[in-house]
Amino acid sequence: MRNLVKRFGKFTALDGISFEVKEGEIFGLLGPNGAGKTTTISILSTTINLTSGHASIYNRDVVKSKDDARKLIGIVFQDPSLDEELTGRENLDFHARLYGIKGNDKREAIDRVLKLVELEDKADKQVKTYSGGMKRRLEIARGFMHKPKVLFLDEPTIGLDPQTRRKIWEYIVKLNKKEKLTILLTTHYMEEADAICSRIAIIDHGRIIRLDTAEKLKDSLGGDVIKIGTGNPKRLMAILKKCKLFGSIKEFNNGLEITTNNGSHAIPKIIELAKDAGIDVAYTTLNRPTLEDVFISLTGNAIREESASSADQLKANQEARDTRGKPI
Ligand SMILES: Nc1ncnc2c1ncn2[C@@H]1O[C@H](COP(=O)(O)OP(=O)(O)OP(=O)(O)O)[C@@H](O)[C@H]1O
Ligand SMILES: [Mg+2]
Q1: pLDDT digit string (tens) for 254-291?
Q2: 5, 7, 10, 11: which to mutate for ligand 1, most atoms within 8 A of CB?
Q3: Model-level pTM?
């Protein structure tokens, strides 16, 4: 996509976004609430129109060749969109019919996706008896049952507990590898982007502020930080400065703080140099910058890991769904 702009009235939700997802990638759009993640996915999945710019999926323009683009994609929305009164299998059946999958193909497709997300046992139970994690797994299963080339996952693990979240990561990686699906996911969980995305675009206020692999993003902060506890920091500093292997070296209470690109190699070297000079080393610590540090350094703000408002939102949506369509 190039220079994607989306305005809602006078408000600019996307302010010129450009990026390309490569075939076979798990690409992450990482950003806080309101950054523009859902808006981006909605445009790519042809759910809403763009204001200006250009976006295509396998060379199918999402505006000019909307129907062709749509055939190539699967989507899991941020808000729950299952029919709670139906069973898991019935939800999948409904989706299959929408995509014109019939007869044996349909049965096979349903069994295949249920197996991948390990919901075979629960398939014939009503969705309203599922846990949040099971519902999300069913939605993911539904998203790829018509064999799309690209799967959009909008906040696939929002509001789930850490264990369930990890399980969902497993399915996402499995889908990417086994079903050869290219995946574009959005998240505001740092560790999610770090754990499963091949590349990450950090998005805030409708702009991409950095795009790279998690490793390179972290390296951009100047690499690792080593702390060395010693009774003789000044002498050790002089020795370390002389060998020019390290980045910045700062003194703090009874120790040194050293930046380096490769902390795990640097520590033994520092200890060796200290030992040769007869300087005691009380302790060493190694800190690798996290994506959170990257985010703070780029935006000046911490991203909220666990967003209460999102969880509340999810609950509110769920409640709205539960009451919808019920006899008064
Ligand atoms: N239909 C709409 N009308 C007006 N403003 C909108 C509409 N949809 C989104 N916005 C605004 O656009 C901005 C981006 O919203 P978007 O839903 O893309 O954010 P997001 O990154 O998905 O956030 P979240 O993490 O909360 O899901 C927000 O400020 C939002 O209020
Ligand atoms: Mg969103």
Answers
A1: 899 898 888 888 999 999 999 999 999 999 999 888 88
A2: 11
A3: 0.81
